[in-house]
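User: Can you help me understand a structure? I only have the sequence.
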Amino acid sequence: MLLSFKFIAPAVALIAALSFLVPVLGQAPAKSNQKAAAFNPRDLSGVWWVEDPGPEKLMARGRRGDASKCQTCHVSDHTMPEPPLTPWAQEHLIVPDATPEGAAHGPANADGASMRPAQRGECDPIGVPAQFWYSQLAPFEFVATPRRIFQFFENRREWRAIWMDRAHPASLDQGYMGDSIGKWDGNTLIVDTIGYNGKDMIEPVGVGHLMSDAFHLIERWQRVSRGKIELDATYYDQKAWGDKPWGGLKLEFVIQPSMQIEESYCSPQQNAKFEERFMKPAAKPSQ
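Assistant: Let's start by predicting it. Here is the structure, written out as tokens:
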């Protein structure tokens, strides 16, 4: 259920605000034209970022007054369309005012406010897979230990543990990141995540509904060269799509050997500052 760009301005403001508040523009990302060299394909350690990061295109659109169209701030990385939503999902997961019709139904809190973080201006956790979408604006880091692989996201300083020595617990404490377990299939790290609390968006732009608490994420990470890793992610959600998976989210990341993760916290005040600067239409010169 992909949405028209003109209905996603609030999400764009939140996304771009986060990138505006961290020293993203001051960091020089490494390029992928590194010479071939021996490497351990099972070693994902290091800071990773997309090859052409940053919100420069969004900022340019903001200066022209058309940033809300969001046609250049993100290009969809999906290779197959989202499956149709189930009737239950249509009733319970649709975010108010996130559809072209502006439907006034869907999840809301006790006072009727929208549950969509970008719409209420709050700084709730993003979780995965939404953090992968934000990787256009901020890097992340893998840190490997004997029992776990940690993934630290610069955006909002969120992190998760991928357990390499156990199965999912029989009783899970549900959360924004879910419970992630990993295993190696050859040189591909397969990460299986369940145990979501169903309170967040799957992706911040282009998907107008929340995930359910049945959301199931499968990631395949492969280090294809010394300087590059690839992610192939597939979404499952019995309550949202029934038995049909939604796949095709494929991203590439480049090693950043001289970069370290910076502090980046969400602030409603700073988000509003960015929106005032970039999201409002450019003033027309007086006649």
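Now, to help you interpret it: The longest strand covers residues 215-225. The chain has one domain: 5-31+42-279. Let me know which part you'd like to focus on.
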